[in-house]
Amino acid sequence: MFPRDNAGSFQVPSTKEGAIKLICEVPSRHLEIYTPHETFLMQTPDGIDPDRTNPNAMWVNAKTHDVGSASPIVASTFITAFEMLPRAGQLDKSARDDVLSLMYAIKETLLQCAHAKDAQQTELLKFQAKRLPQGTQAQAHAYFPVIHNLDGLVTAFLIAARRAVTEICQIPGHFF
């Protein structure tokens, strides 16, 4: 028996308070652990090294997102699908896994869109906090918003948004 075959244990490398709310299997990929405000990935040694070439392969735990089960994106896409799909009687296990993988991809794509939007929102809040009061005789703004790499952020947002729409449109095909 190799060290990789021993029982695994883990500690979530959390930076925020909150208990684990849900552990979900992403079909053929890994486990995701959700606290209210963070998401973590957990992979087994067999998930990392399926050919068993490394007898000392270890479990991997890593934080993937600063949003968790309290996020409307996470809750209304992947977690809802994870909880409802086992009750979908018309789908066999393979079809459920396909839909769940699709919902996981949609969640990831929507989080990419939100991340691109957050950069703009952060800069807007800085501008509003440093704006000069009305009625001053100033000839210049004390702070003017500059979003670094705006073209890249907008491009990333539009690509992710298009991908999300494409993936969402694939969902009905699994049920009909």
Give an account of the 3D structure.
This protein is α+β, with helices and mostly antiparallel strands. It has two domains: 1-69, no CATH class; 71-132 and 141-176. Helices cover 43% and strands 12% of the residues. A four-stranded antiparallel β-sheet has the order 1-2-3-4.
Return residue spans where pLDDT drops below 50 for at least 5 consecutive residues: none
List the helices and strands in order: EEEHEHHH
Strand order of the largest sheet: 1-2-3-4
Q: What is Rg?
A: 21 Å
Tally of separate helices: 4
Question: Which features characterize this protein?
Answer:
176 residues; alpha+beta; four-stranded antiparallel β-sheet; 4 helices; 12% strand
At a glance:
The chain has helices at residues 45-48, 72-84, 93-130, 150-170, and strands at residues 22-26, 30-34, 39-43, 60-65.
